[in-house]
Amino acid sequence: QVQLVESGGGSVQAGGSLRLSCATSAYTYSNYCMGWFRQAPGKEREGVAGIRSDGSTIYADSVKGRFTISTDNAKNTLYLQMNSLKPEDTAMYYCAADLGWTCLMYGVSRLLDKDIFDYWGQGTQVTISS
């Protein structure tokens, strides 16, 4: 069983930065896909950024150039650095994991598809004020 625990959310003003962390045991696996998703009230959960064990990354168009996904395998942690935050970034943010070589067979764009992920964290709230 893989555990995912997010932290780092909070309330900041527009233009500010936050770094989300996701502590996970997923890195004990050689092959994995990890992603950050967000869900605002009344909206569908959407993919924000994804990363695979082969180093491939992808970002939603709405966050390109502002957000950076990274991993620290030594610390078993997934990060999402969020800069130039906007009020529309307000949401609950979740990290997710899919393990094994199967996810590496998908196109990298699938990392933004919540349906390929088997494991989810409990979420951390991000609120951006204007």
Q: How would you characterize this protein structure?
A:
The protein starts with a strand and ends with a strand. Strands 2, 4, 5, 6, 9, 10 and 11 form a seven-stranded mixed β-sheet that branches. It is mainly beta and 130 residues long. It is 3% helix and 48% strand. The radius of gyration is 14 Å and the shape is globular. The longest helix has 4 residues. The model has no long low-confidence stretch (mean pLDDT 94). It has one helix and eleven strands. A hairpin with a 6-residue loop joins strand 4 and strand 5.
Question: Which structural class best describes the helix and strand composition?
Answer: mainly beta
- What share of residues is helical? under 10%
Shape: globular
Query: What is the count of DSSP helices, taking H or I runs of 4+ residues?
Result: 1
- Total number of beta strands: 11
In N-to-C order, the SSE pattern is EEEEEEEEEHEE
| Poorly predicted parts | none
Mean of the pLDDT scores? 94
* Main sheet characteristics: 7 strands, mixed
Distance between the termini: 40 Å
Radius of gyration: 14 Å
| DSSP strand content | over 45%
Keywords:
130 residues, mainly beta, seven-stranded mixed sheet, four-stranded antiparallel sheet, 1 helix
Record the SSE blueprint.
Layout: E1 4-7, E2 10-13, E3 18-24, E4 32-39, E5 46-52, E6 57-59, E7 67-72, E8 77-82, E9 91-99, H1 102-105, E10 119-120, E11 124-129
Parallel strand pairs: 2-11
Antiparallel strand pairs: 1-3, 3-8, 4-5, 4-9, 5-6, 7-8, 9-10, 9-11
